[in-house]
Every structure is written in structure tokens, then in C-alpha cells.
Write a structure and sequence with these properties.
Elements (H helix, E strand, L loop, with lengths): L21 H13 L4 H11 L9 H26 L6 H24 L3
Helix pairs in contact: 1-2, 3-4
Pfam family, one: NikA-like
């Protein structure tokens, strides 16, 4: 099943190009990421409503979630290799990655209760 058809009036066919400095582009990208939007949709909402879109997740927390995900992926890859017998035992590496994962989770859970954003 494909996407629903968009009426001709609702199609976005006009393109507006703007130039930003590197720092302005980074600000827009980080604000859009924190609002769980694309930069184009973030700019569109700001222009037409006059308000900044609501921040869903602080950029720091979003970065920590990404790092936590990477650690989990690494742990799964190492465990798979160890279980298949293709790699030697990486108990020290797994322990260190597990410690980092616990530290990040502790920080995320503590940050969520503090109310500071």
C-alpha cells in the first residue's frame, strides 16, 4: 500500500533557497533534531506560526541516546562473534562497554527526574 495521494493544493512545489553560515546551519539542525523535525519543517513551522517548535528531547539527551545505541550494537556484535566461536573471549571489552552503558543509563534516568532541561 502506497502513500495517500496529496491534493494539488497541498503539494509543495515552490522551493525557496536561503544561505546560512555554518554556525546558523548547525543551530537550525540541532534545534530541528531536538524538536524531532527535519530542518525544513522546523523552519516552516517557525515562519508560519512565529513560535519555535516545542523541544521534544534536549540535544544532550539525544546525543546520549545515540551513544547508548552504539554501545548496545557493539555489545551485540561482540556477543555474536563470541557465540559463533570466531573471536577470542572479550570479557574485558564487554565489561567496559557494559559499564559505559550503565553510566549513560544512570545519567539519563537521573536527568529525566531532575526536571532540568
Amino acid at each position: 500500500m502506497g502513500r495517500p495521494a496529496i491534493s494539488e493544493d497541498d503539494k509543495r512545489v515552490v522551493q525557496v533557497n536561503i544561505r546560512l553560515t555554518v554556525s546558523e546551519n548547525e543551530r537550525v539542525f540541532h534545534q530541528a533534531e531536538a524538536s524531532a523535525m527535519t530542518p525544513a519543517n522546523w523552519i516552516r513551522q517557525k515562519i508560519f506560526t512565529g513560535k519555535f517548535p516545542q523541544v521534544k528531547v534536549s540535544p544532550i539527551t539525544a546525543a546520549m541516546y545515540r551513544e547508548l545505541h552504539k554501545i548496545g550494537v557493539n555489545l551485540n556484535q561482540i556477543a555474536k562473534l563470541m557465540n559463533s566461536g570466531k573471536q577470542p573471549n572479550f570479557i574485558g571489552v564487554i565489561a567496559e562497554l557494559g559499564k559505559q552503558q550503565r553510566d549513560i543509563l544512570k545519567h539519563l534516568l537521573h536527568d529525566g527526574r531532575s526536571g532540568k532541561r
